[in-house]
């Protein structure tokens, strides 16, 4: 497991201590030419889930030095 993912898992464990648990963590590979577009889309999805009752709550983090995002689902 890469260092960035380990750090995210540690952060999610810290968040779970504050009664905020994440149930799955996955990686989304993105075409390097479309990073900005992917970031905008993932941000929109994350914000929309906060507004919907019963929706899964997503958090997306850009993996430093890689063309991928880490998705955390609550």
TrEMBL record:
<dbReference type="InterPro" id="IPR011008">
    <property type="entry name" value="Dimeric_a/b-barrel"/>
</dbReference>
<protein>
    <recommendedName>
        <fullName>ABM domain-containing protein</fullName>
    </recommendedName>
</protein>
């Amino acid at each position: 497991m890469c260092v960035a993912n380990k750090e995210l898992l540690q952060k999610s464990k810290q968040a779970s201590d504050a009664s905020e648990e994440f149930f799955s963590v996955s990686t989304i590979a993105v075409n390097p030419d479309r990073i900005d577009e992917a970031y905008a889309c993932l941000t929109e999805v994350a914000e929309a889930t906060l507004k919907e009752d019963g929706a899964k709550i997503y958090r997306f983090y850009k993996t430093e030095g890689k063309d991928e995002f880490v998705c955390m689902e609550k």
